[in-house]
């Protein structure tokens, strides 16, 4: 794992310290801390409602206005939680790409998929003359066959797997060092899932860092370097993928593991 130098100290690409989150009066994250190095794939595992998506939304700065958040989210040496809206907008999409759980909810049915990938680039590079080319490259990289032809299609004309690849292209188009993926393969069949996980492995080889949220230990086994197990907003276990599979300590982790080993 390569690490960044910052003010003479070796530090991670992303470091989350004592993250606490409330939606209204209800606390959903309790002192969540972890760090992510360059070229690392971290899986966050936990059952539905444990707070996995909330961690990603906190990093992206996409929480609803009734949310209250405390702690630190240090990305490339800067605390995103104390950053202004302008700074957050500059980072979102450009430095941190996000793949959402449900591509159909994310893509706009009224625009062609290619134009949506292109728009994700133009937001950050409005003066660049090569946005269409960048969009096509990102679509190709995301594993979309014949991107030129797919560019002009609308979301409803694509399969679920291809729509998810369009979302991945959108997340990749600005070449961000960090990618957040929220259960990106949950709705897809196993062969499509496998190809998307292979794509994440390629991104990792390029030195990108990925946080992948999943409730599926099968996915974890295939691609994680490190794992965090979240339960009711608290980290109950953490370790390398080998440690978690060989010697799970928390009863909850054991229970999740048994679900795939049966
Ligand atoms: N926008 C929201 N407003 C209020 N409560 C929310 C919101 N999003 C999630 N929650 C609640 O926060 C908790 C964690 O949810 P979430 O982060 O979506 O978990 P996960 O992704 O692990 O399923 C759950 O109790 C959920 O009901
Ligand atoms: Mg979720």
Structure explained in plain terms:
There is one protein chain. The protein has 262 residues and is α/β, with parallel strands linked by helices. The protein has a single domain, classed as P-loop containing nucleotide triphosphate hydrolases (Rossmann fold). The protein contains 11 helices and 12 strands. It has helices at residues 52-60, 85-91, 103-106, 113-122, 131-141, 147-151, 160-172, 190-205, 217-223, 241-246, 251-261; strands at 4-6, 9-11, 14-23, 26-36, 41-45, 67-75, 78-79, 96-99, 178-182, 209-214, 226-231, 234-240. The strands form 3 sheets. A 6-stranded mixed beta sheet has the order 8-9-10-5-11-12, with helices on both faces. A hairpin with a 2-residue loop joins strand 11 and strand 12 (234-240). Helix 5 (131-141) crosses helix 7. The chain is globular and about 50 Å long. The model has no long low-confidence stretch (mean pLDDT 91).
Number of domains: 1
The ordered string of helix (H) and strand (E) elements is EEEEEHEEHEHHHHHEHEHEEHH
Mean pLDDT: 91
Number of E-state strands: 12
The CATH topology: Rossmann fold
List ligands, each type once: adenosine-5'-diphosphate, magnesium ion
What spatial form do the alpha-carbon principal axes imply?
Answer: globular
């Amino acid at each position: 794992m390569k690490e960044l130098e910052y003010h003479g100290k070796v530090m991670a690409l992303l470091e989350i310290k004592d993250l606490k989150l409330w939606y209204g009066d209800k606390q959903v994250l309790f002192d969540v801390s972890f760090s992510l190095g360059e070229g690392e794939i971290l899986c966050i595992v936990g059952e539905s409602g444990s707070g996995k998506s909330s961690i990603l939304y906190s990093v992206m700065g996409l929480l609803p206005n009734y949310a209250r958040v405390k702690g630190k989210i240090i990305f490339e040496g800067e605390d995103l939680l104390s950053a202004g809206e302008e700074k957050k907008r500059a980072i979102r999409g450009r430095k941190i790409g996000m793949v959402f759980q449900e591509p159909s909810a994310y893509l706009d049915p009224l625009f062609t998929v290619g134009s949506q990938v292109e728009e994700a680039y133009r937001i950050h590079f409005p003066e660049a003359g090569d946005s269409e080319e960048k969009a096509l490259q990102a679509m190709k990289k995301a594993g979309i066959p014949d991107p030129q032809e797919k560019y002009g299609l609308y979301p409803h004309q694509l399969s679920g797997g291809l729509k998810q690849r369009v979302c991945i292209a959108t997340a990749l188009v600005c070449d961000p060092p960090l990618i957040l993926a929220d259960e990106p393969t949950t709705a897809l069949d196993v062969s499509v899932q496998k190809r998307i996980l292979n794509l994440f492995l390629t991104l990792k080889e390029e030195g990108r860092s990925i946080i992948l949220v999943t409730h599926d230990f099968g996915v974890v086994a295939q691609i994680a370097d490190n794992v965090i197990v979240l339960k009711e907003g608290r980290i109950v276990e953490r370790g390398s993928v080998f440690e978690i599979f060989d010697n799970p300590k928390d009863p909850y982790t054991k229970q999740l593991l048994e679900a795939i080993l049966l």
